[in-house]
Amino acid sequence: MPRPHGFTYEQHAGGTVRISHHGRPATTLNGPRAARFLTEVEAFDPQLVMARWTGDYKRGNERAARDHPRNRR
Asked: 12, 17, 20, 70: which sits with the fewest CB atoms below 10 Å from its CB?
């Protein structure tokens, strides 16, 4: 599985954090969630942390979903 890439984040006044993926807004965090995100992004791999916080990461079930009868054409 390829590693996530293309994520950036901006910290704004008032404690707001905006996460973007390839230049497009992915999510905005406020208050305690933004503070927790900033702590995690400093301690771990920033790309992985941002992918997890935005929900834009592989879950491991893509092949099973592709093979499900509902998704076959």
From this structure: 70
Distance of CA 16 to the CA centre of its chain: 16
Compute CA 14 distance to the chain's CA centroid, rounded to the nearest angstrom: 22
> Chunked in runs of 10, what are the mean pLDDT values of the chain (73 residues)?
78 92 90 93 89 71 66 68
Nearest of 7, 1, 3 to residue 54 by alpha carbon: 7
Alpha-carbon distances, residue 31 vs 17, 36, 44, 52, 73 (angstroms): 9, 9, 20, 18, 45
CB atoms near residue 11 (< 10 Å): 13
pTM flag (> 0.90)? no
Query: Two tokens at 66?
Result: 């592709």
